[in-house]
Every structure is written in C-alpha cells, then in structure tokens.
Specification:
By secondary structure, the protein is α+β, with helices and mostly antiparallel strands. Helix 3 packs across helix 4. Helix content is about 30%, strand content about 30%.
Amino acid sequence: MQTQFIEKDFPYDGTQLRSLFAYLNHGILGPSVVAWQGACSIPFEHMVDGEDLLAKAVIQGDEMLHFIIEIFDRDLFSGVSLQRLFASICRDYLQTQAASVLVGKSLRRDGDDIYLDDRKLSISIATKSPVSVLVHFAMNVTNKGTPVETLSLRDLQLDPRRVAEDLMTHFRKEYISMVTATHKVRPVS
C-alpha cells in the first residue's frame, strides 16, 4: 500500500471518489491512501450516501483534511470494514495526540464518524467501483462553513499535515498486517 500527502490544496466535491483517482491524478498505482487539504461541498449529483440524499443533507466545510483510500478486488463489506478501521485508528490517534486539550473528555466513534459530545469532527463514505472499493474520510480543519455543530483539528490544536502523515502510516501498517495474516493461514476442511 502506498501513501502520499498531496501538497496542493484543492476542494472535494465528490468527483474525486472514483476508480484510479490516485493513479491517474498523482501517479500512485495499486492500493493506496492519499490525503490533502481543501474545502468540501458535495452537490446532490455527486452524493453517494442514500441516507444523505433522502435527507437532502448539506455536506460542506471551508477547510477539511481529506483522505481517499482505494483497495482493489474487494467487496463493499470489505470497504466499509476498512472505513470503520480507519475511523477507529483516527479516534485512537487523536485522543492520544490531543490529550492535553481533551482533559477529562473522550472522542467517540459512532459507525464511521468521530464526535466530541455532539460536535462532529468527520464525514465519511465507502463505495464500490467496478474494480475497487473506495473510502472518502475527511475531518474539519476549521469549523467555518459547516452546516452542523462541529469539532476541528484546530480545536484539538493539531497540525493537519502531521495528522495526515501519521494516520496514513498507521493505516498502512494495519493494512499490511491484515494482508500478511491472510497469507499465513492453512485452509480447513
């Protein structure tokens, strides 16, 4: 699995959640996690989550830290499992790194989202393309431009670039360990 922090800021509008985004736009072939900073505004025609579509949800923020994970030859259940694994890794990492800010409080993961009390830190979706499963996961860098009460990396006094690089490293190690675990098991009859 390859990882890369993309230096150029650009907005996320849902069109980036597609097969081979990392390869065709950034030269990263194979299983990958890429991250970048940018605004977020997802119009209904690019919204993947049926629940959000039915609710006519507004999904936007002025500045977010975005991740796109792409894994090949897996089903959607695997994609959702990796999405929740990534959310769990994020929650654990942020709880430790922001311990001095979160004194006496705990971040919680609910499905694929992370909260502090009722303040939402993240958005996420997993989907399937003809060749891969894809996950978009993003965290607020700032609370500006969000339609709901939010928590941000700025509130946690964390540097988005460092957060991105650390999380990609943790996720890569976990993914490699999972793949290795599938290679060392004898079949049963």
